[in-house]
# Entry
Amino acid sequence: MKREISACLTVFVVLFTINAFAADILGVYFPPYKDSYLPIIKLYDSAEKYIHLAIYSLTKDEFADALITAHKRGVEVKVLIDKAQAGNQHADDESLENEGIEVRRDKASGLMYNKFAVIDDLIVYTGSYNHTKGGTEDNDENYIIIKDVGIAHIYEAQFQKLWEKHK
# Structure
């Protein structure tokens, strides 16, 4: 009997601990489909303090527009983009800079192939998804939106490391 109570108590404690500290998954997405970018736009639209974006490619204007709108609301927006992709004639990095958004292009010999954003010390989205028409409508992609302070801090630390590396 003591063993059963102990086992039940152990299971309860483990389940309570996992549940108490589990991240909230706000959505899991598998583009391509027409409006697959909208959950990310909604994140940008709801940001209050900052959006820190590390992205390989940014050519879909709806993303640039949402970042510019957030910046004009007083949200700190920083974008780190792959240097080769930034050189693409359709890339939106220069339009972001023209609006006063701080943009850095990587300085590494390899690719800056990250695709994640940290929003307000609380929300992270990450996956294979680029901010492009192809990523939205053509390519088999994925991304997940997570609401968790601990995970956000891990991604924010990585963003800051990359931001400093690519001054």
In short: Residues 2-21 form the longest helix (20 residues). Residues 6 and 12 are 10 Å apart (CA to CA). The chain has one domain: 24-165. The mean pLDDT is 89.
